[in-house]
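Anyone able to model this chain together with magnesium ion?
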Amino acid sequence: MYTMYFLPTACAVGSRCPMGTVGSGGRAGTLPSRCMMQGGNRQGTANRAHMVCTLVQWKGGVGKSTLAIHMAAALDAVLVDLEPWGGATAWWAGPRAAALWQAPGRAPLLRALSDGTVPRPRRGSAGRPRLVPSHEQLLGLGEGAVVATAEGPLPLAEAIRRALPRWAEAWGCHVVVDTPAGFGPLADGAVAAADVVVLPVTLDQWAVPALRKFMASYAGRVRCGLVVPNRVRRRLEDRRWAELVAADGLIPAPFVLGPPVAESEVLHVARRPLAAGPAPSPARGAAIEEIDALARRTLELAA
Ligand SMILES: Nc1ncnc2c1ncn2[C@@H]1O[C@H](COP(=O)(O)OP(=O)(O)O)[C@@H](O)[C@H]1O
Ligand SMILES: [Mg+2]
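re: yes, here you go
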């Protein structure tokens, strides 16, 4: 029964989880092997020690950026912000966001692709994850975009697919990618590169049908997909939607239902990672546990 997901999950803050330390700012365990999930159709690559996890959904406002930020912090991952408006970059940099988003020169993503280099992530303060920031130049990258790469011109999605796993290995850590809503080459490339895609969904008549359409379109291109009910409230309507989402057949392979994340004022207003700072309040502790559970499940699927 889905209702079990309304119960708190079990990982204590900062505890050593089977897949590595999550939620304490510690480095998460590396992945022993590539995901061999049945139903995954993406072309495999050689064994890698570090996963690429992409947050994706056609629908906006479901929590992609919020979960990307906090998952990256929990996993001690590099956060790559591919959302052209740079929601995660704005959260990360606060008042300095415009300086990053409109930094002179080429966008970090485009520079790394064209030079065949690995971007140097920015170090975050107060526990913020390392970041490859968004840039206003990403706004111009629509359907059909072709970019210069060290291997010659490539469709943007293909260039991103090739680059992200390489960057993860070069950085020696997991990578969490935030993507824009809607359909486009930035999200497509990050989906194709991902060991696990995480699909947040709010439990309502707008997001659930959009999720179903997304899964139908992407089933052939996703290796492992984790559907994460987000902003779940303890109310009858959410419970009904939750049961519907959990019903047989609604989430087909290679997608699976993941642990939910509750509606949380803490997540809504947090200006820094949840585990940073003094001992957490009960509300922050609850949010940390949920993000930890999500990070752990993602690692399990990638392994
Ligand atoms: N679990 C949550 N609890 C409370 N608010 C949330 C939660 N997840 C996301 N939000 C809020 O929902 C809004 C949209 O989230 P965002 O991460 O920007 O979505 P997306 O990136 O999918 O467009 C933001 O105001 C964010 O603070
Ligand atoms: Mg966003």
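The chain has one domain: 50-302.
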